[in-house]
Design a protein that fits this description.
It is built from 12 helices and 10 strands. It is α+β, with helices and mostly antiparallel strands. The chain has 2 domains: about 5-120, Phosphorylase Kinase, domain 1; about 135-350, Aminoglycoside phosphotransferase (APH), C-terminal lobe (Aminoglycoside 3'-phosphotransferase, Chain: A, domain 2), CATH 3.90.1200. Strand 2 (about 45) and strand 3 (about 55-60) form a beta hairpin. Helix 4 (about 135-155) runs parallel beside helix 9 (about 280-295) and helix 10 packs antiparallel against helix 12 (about 340-350). The radius of gyration is 20 Å and the shape is globular. The model is unreliable at about 1-5 (pLDDT under 50).
Amino acid sequence: MASIDYETEMVGTVEVPERDRLDEVALTAWFEDNVEGFSGPITLEKFKGGQSNPTYKVKTPGRTYVLRRQPFGKLLPSAHAVDREYTAMSCLGPTGFPVPRTYGLCEDTEVIGAKFFVMDLADGRNLWNGALPDYEPDQRREIYHAMIDTLADLHLKDPQAIGMGNFGKPQDYCARQIARWSKQYRLSETDTIPEMDRLIEWLPETIPAQHASGIVHGDYRLDNLIFHASENRIIAVLDWELSTLGDPVADFAYFMLNWVNPPDGRAGIGGLDHAALGIPTREEAVERYVARTGYPVPPMDWYFAYNLFRLAGIMQGIKKRVIDGTASSAHAKQMSERVAPLVANAYHFAKEAGLD
């Protein structure tokens, strides 16, 4: 398979495709009623990425906004939770955590045909290649330290204190996630994969003890971050649709998958010479996170199996939407082909963690 230049394919905007057009008159009226300081007219473009929840750039003479909506058509239960994204960013923003400012949530599907919310445009760098080929070793280290520290800082937030006490059940996170993605997988299943069936049985029986509870992002990775234009610090964490309360260590272990995933032009950096590149080794990354949070070192093999299983469930949903013709991104078809490899990798780490 030919390699993809993800930064070319996924960064930036395109003209809104016919199938994704919005009612601009109704949308303008909603902006006038709900967005402080709004002044039209509006011009719409669609971001290339965002295959789960279609995302638009809304330009006006004085400001640029971002609109994120649910897909049109039939949706799986609890999927495409733009309302959860909006809540998470609205609560975290006032604490100083780097998220875009939110302007409004529309739960009335009559306006444009789907729920949506509006936020500020975070104007900075969107990076895709975890090897950071355009950077020097010290810059790479700064970028990776920023990613580790920002995730640790999220996990140290007190949900109750910032209005997110009811955002989810703080305990039994992995058990709930396994149940959720097993159900979603079954609802969108298109092929029988025996290893996936075995993981659905084995994972709930072997869950490690949860040592802490906090806010988990659910999809924390390089391309969901916006970096400052000239400084190696994060100005916005995006894509909060999978966020909830639960086990921060599971969230961190998902991020750490980058150290074992192959370097394919995306976040994976497995097998690279991290020391020569200036990227923290897996051990150094874990050590930095543990030092900042005070959490114990996690049993990585189990958490890798769990997170790869979870990703397979997410990708199966995308695969089903490709088959049904409702997937939003042109890149979705290639992503849908990752289900079987993800399951195989999850099964490998499950065996490392003790699966017979």
